[in-house]
Design a protein that fits this description.
Layout lengths: L7 H8 L1 H23 L4 E6 L2 H17 L2 E6 H6 L1 H4 L6 E7 L5 H12 L3 E6 L5 H5 L2 E4 L12 H18 L2 H8 L1 H20 L6 E5 L3 H17 L3 E4 L1 H5 L10 E6 L5 H13 L3 E6 L12 E4 L14 H14 L19
Helix pairs in contact: 1-14, 2-8, 2-10, 3-8, 3-11, 8-9, 10-14, 11-14
Length: 353
């Protein structure tokens, strides 16, 4: 396989994300009214998934709590089967939101079936309308514009997050928030135009031996997804932490070979500024992803992506992802790997290819 063809599906899927977000908003709206009626009789929303879908669940739960003031949490799908009393103590009072790109993930499907048998309502969010998960669920949001050829999830992950955000907005009847989600589509296209080459540029830096990601609340979930993408696509060491957890120990292992990306919030700007100041003293390379250049840590970061969403911190989060996904994809390609299929043996790219 030539260098020109490595990762072409992954790159195309990253760049097409705004279209998948628009479709996610439309698909969520199709079930919103019926789902809102069902929520009147339910006490808790539990988001579940595995891998990238679990990271989407981790992002969705705090956003749902923030918007609706209702009870919501995320669980790993396997725990629904192995620890049902701990993870789902009141199935008849629960809406289980089961996220799975394929709709055939074993643990997610088993957990959803068990929860439904115990009286829970199940909402499936998947890219496959014909999947077992979509067919067995009480409600289904199918994200067909987010279907991917590549193994490494990119637009499927962000589309699932957007779908969950939209459902939270509809549940809260928050028209302002829903308007901010709709604005993600043109903002995402502009962001890719403005910063699309930054991920490729960072990928070429040979001195980076580890890529770390930090964020709090819903941004922590995206940091987890970023480190998973880097590990899967590049086989390079990568970690994800909450900001204060990073400062309580892991920061001692930071040096000039570490690249750290901070997915910033509005609420935690003060601690984020202090965090980056500490790491700067340790000679780490720092990328700040934030709403605007008014973030106090801008003066410390080596690179800044200001997404300029015009929305609140719970609406804009997926705008942080394309640059970081491009970093992973281009790094993989430069290493002679194929982010479309990371399990394949590395290819030695020669001039004759």
């Amino acid at each position: 396989m030539s260098e020109e063809t490595l990762g072409q599906s992954t790159l195309a899927e990253i760049l097409s994300q705004p279209e998948a977000w628009m479709d996610a908003l439309l698909q969520a709206e199709t079930v919103a009214k019926e789902l809102r009626r069902a929520l009147y009789d339910l006490d808790e929303v539990v988001f579940c998934g595995c891998g990238s879908a679990y990271n989407a669940a981790l992002a969705a739960a705090p956003i749902y709590r923030q918007l609706t003031l209702g009870r919501a949490r995320a669980v790993q799908a396997g725990d629904l089967t192995f620890f049902p009393q701990a993870t789902l103590p009141d199935p008849p009072g629960t809406l289980l939101v089961a996220l799975s790109r394929s709709g055939e993930t074993t643990e997610t499907l088993q957990g959803a079936k068990h929860a439904q048998a115990e009286g829970a309502k199940v909402l499936a969010i998947t890219c496959n309308a014909q999947s077992q998960l979509a067919q067995m669920a009480d409600f289904a949001v199918t994200l067909e514009r987010a279907v991917e050829r590549s193994v490494t999830p990119t637009r499927s992950f962000t589309a699932m997050v957007v779908a969950c955000q939209a459902l939270a907005g509809h549940a809260a009847q928050d028209t302002e928030f829903l308007g901010q989600l709709a604005a993600l589509v043109p903002k995402g296209q502009q962001l890719i135009e403005n910063y699309g080459t930054l991920g490729e540029l960072l990928a070429t830096e040979d001195r980076y031996e580890r890529f770390d990601f930090a964020g709090d609340a819903h941004c922590y979930a995206l940091a987890c997804e970023c480190q998973l993408t880097v590990k899967e696509a590049t086989r390079t060491p990568s970690r994800a932490y909450r900001v204060l957890e990073y400062r309580h120990g892991p920061a001692a292992l930071v040096d000039e070979a570490v690249h750290l990306s901070l997915l910033a919030t509005d609420s935690g700007q003060e601690q984020e500024h202090a965090f980056l100041a500490d790491l700067k003293e340790r000679e780490a390379s720092l990328l700040l992803l934030c709403e605007s250049t008014e973030h106090p840590a801008v003066e410390i970061a080596d690179e800044v992506v200001d997404v300029q969403s015009g929305g609140n911190e719970f609406a804009r989060v997926v705008l942080y992802m394309p640059v970081l996904q491009l970093l992973a994809a281009h790094r993989s390609i430069l290493m002679g790997l194929n982010p479309d299929a990371p399990d394949e043996q590395p290819n030695q790219v020669s001039a004759e290819d």
